[in-house]
Design a protein that fits this description.
UDP-n-acetylglucosamine1-carboxyvinyl-transferase, Chain, 23 strands, four-stranded mixed beta sheet, 12 helices
């Protein structure tokens, strides 16, 4: 394991004892009745790691308020620190970021974080010296060729096509135009966009391939760039142009992580209860916001006010036929709901999640069927038929969203246990504690 600065992981902000390689078997608690709770959710992982990269490349110091402090974001902060960026803890749980001259030698531990392994290399290509990247065992099989080949095309010296790989920088990068196939992940585009303004010629990215999944995440990246004065042209479909120029320093306030929040809203849905997430934004680029329409289609009552989002579960959930291409990170949660619903559910448009932390399609089918369910794979998704489930072990595959899907099912199916609840620290610092606190309101 590549060492990381200890000051970035002070307890209780980051439960580092629960991270890579330390599995934790967990008996998923069943709800004693409908869950009634208000659940504050930590900041968005997607926004936090985008903000950290931009703050590291900015013209002056930035402050990040209410960031997510989880394994993925702490790894990003540690990696930036190792490259010469000042990353200081704030008493309120935020970070003060002071840009510095990026330089190696440095070792970057990506863990299993797609945002680290795909967002940081384009920034590290601006460093002087050698930067070595590695991560968890499964991270070594996650797609990286698209980003690394693109960096080579923009003038970077890269050795390797997947983790582990090495970048050798001279302190700048020419940039220019590059054509990629981003059908495997929107992160390929976002990673290149985030650092593009610092390249001598900026960057023009052209996508050539099947449709790009999770387009809202690219919209999030573009909006974040524009908020710090970066010129981004999105006038042509599948083409993104970033002009070279400065990145402004600013104070950031990170929204709650809506994808993480969906798990707690699902508790209301499956138990016929009511859960409120405070601070749900009225407008957002987070794909997790799509859960509002999904839960309504499944029979829930969904209300958004200035106080937050409230979901009230129905007596019985309904199955649905849905394309989740743009919100594919919600697939495990929707699959867990579907396994407990009445009626057939078809999930489409998510072939690319086979390359996430695990092959999520195969994993969901295996685990639903392992509890007596009836699920099957399709070319770009899965089908779940309504049949009664029984207890058993739900495997997480070191995947945070697989683990939380098992927790949802365990609310109404006695005897479910998750083999690695520690994997949830990737995006939720203390999921078991938050889950128990929510269930204290069951009645």
């Amino acid at each position: 394991m590549i060492p990381r600065p200890e000051h970035l992981c002070e307890l209780p902000r980051c439960p580092c004892e629960k991270i890579a390689g330390m599995t934790q078997h967990w008996s998923a608690p069943s709800a004693s009745g409908p869950v009634h709770s208000t659940v504050p959710v930590p900041g968005s992982k997607s926004i936090t790691n985008r903000v950290l990269v931009l703050a590291a490349l900015a013209d002056g110091p930035s402050t990040v308020h209410a960031p997510l402090r989880s394994r993925d974001t702490v790894l990003m902060a540690a990696a930036l620190s190792s490259l010469g960026v000042g990353v200081a803890d704030r008493e309120d749980g935020g970070w003060d970021i002071t840009p510095g001259v990026l330089r190696g030698p440095a070792d970057v531990d990506c863990g299993l974080a797609g945002t680290v392994m795909r967002f940081l290399p384009p920034a590290a290509a601006l460093a002087e010296g050698e930067i070595r990247f590695d991560g968890d065992p499964h991270a070594r099989v996650r797609p990286m060729t698209t980003v690394l080949d693109a960096l080579r095309g923009l003038g970077a010296d890269v050795e390797g096509g997947s983790l582990p790989f090495t970048l050798r920088g001279t302190g700048s990068l020419p940039g220019g135009e590059v054509t990629i196939d981003a059908s495997g992940s929107s992160q390929f585009v976002s990673g290149l966009l985030l650092s593009a303004a610092r390249y001598e010629k900026g960057v023009t990215i052209r996508h050539d391939g099947k449709p790009v999944p999770s387009l809202p995440h690219i919209d999030m990246t573009v909006q974040t760039l524009r908020s710090v004065g970066v010129e981004v042209d999105t006038g042509v479909a599948d083409v993104w142009r970033v002009e070279p120029g400065p990145i402004a320093a600013r104070t950031w306030h990170v929204e709650p992580d809506l994808s993480n929040a969906t798990v707690f809203l699902a508790a209301a849905a499956v138990t016929g209860g009511e859960v409120t997430i405070p601070g749900w934004p009225a407008t957002t680029t987070q794909p997790g916001d799509a859960v509002r329409g999904i839960l309504e289609r499944m029979g829930c009552t969904v209300t958004l006010t200035g106080e937050g989002l409230t979901v009230r579960g129905p007596e019985k959930l309904s199955g649905l036929d849905i394309d989740l291409r743009d919100e594919s990170e919600l697939t495990p949660t929707v699959a867990a709901l579907a396994a407990l619903a009445e009626g057939r559910t078809v999930i489409r448009g998510v072939a690319h999640i086979r390359g996430h932390e695990t092959d999520r399609i195969a994993a969901l089918v295996n685990e639903v069927n392992g509890l007596g369910g009836k699920a099957s794979e399709t070319e770009d998704g899965l089908v779940i038929e309504p049949v009664p489930l029984h207890g058993g072990t739900w495997k997480a595959y070191a995947d945070h969203r697989m683990a939380t899907a098992g927790a949802i099912i365990g609310l109404v199916v006695p005897g479910v246990s998750v083999d690695d609840i520690g994997s949830t620290t990737k995006t939720i610092p203390d999921f078991p504690g938050m889950w128990d606190a929510m269930l204290a309101g069951a009645r």
